[in-house]
Structures are given as structure tokens and as C-alpha cells.
Amino acid sequence: AGGNGSGNRLDQLCGPHYVFVDRDHSVFVSDYGNHRVMKWTHGAKKGIVVAGGKGAGNSLTQLSSPQGVLVDQLGTVYVADGGNDRIMRWPNGATQGSVIVG
């Protein structure tokens, strides 16, 4: 994941903080500096944004300095949204999350 210098392209990260690897060997990364959670499937050259990615903010489509990340068996992403002092849930394929704590 990443490895192409710091930046905001889909093949870059900016301050990755936490990593989660699911049973399919997909890698999920909380991309702190880009305010998003990225997913790389096994062998992928580019990641996809699975949470946030709309700049820093506190709307349901945004994250601010995401930290811890966990993914359940259904592909739902749970992320500690550090800059907003909340825990967000992003169902698999969702364009926005919901606040579950905070």
C-alpha cells in the first residue's frame, strides 16, 4: 500500500496511522493526513477510498485525522475519527457513514 511518496493519489498515503488486514488479505489503512480510510485488495497497485476522502470535516461524508480502523466480516468499516472525537461506521459500499459513539 502506498510506496509512491506522500500524497493524495490512490497509490499514495499521507501519514498512515493504523492498519487492518481482513481474511481476504485486503489491507485497510487509516490515512491520517488525507482524512480517509483506504483499502488495497491483495496485489492491487492502487487503493480505493472506503471512508472519508472528502477533505477534513465533520459531515457524515468526512473524517478528520482518522486513527484506529477495524473491518467486520460484512465489510463494514469502523474508524476512530480522532479530529471529531467520534467513532464512525461505514457499511460496505456506502458513500457516507454514521456516528455510533460520540
Automatic annotation (TrEMBL):
One GO location term (cellular component): extracellular region
Top-level taxonomic group: Eukaryota
Source organism per UniProt: Rotaria magnacalcarata
Protein name per Swiss-Prot or TrEMBL: Uncharacterized protein
Keyword Repeat: yes
This protein's record includes keyword Signal: yes
InterPro entries linked to this entry: 6-blade_b-propeller_TolB-like, NHL_repeat
Alphabetical UniProt keywords: Glycoprotein, Repeat, Signal
Lineage: Eukaryota, Metazoa, Spiralia, Gnathifera, Rotifera
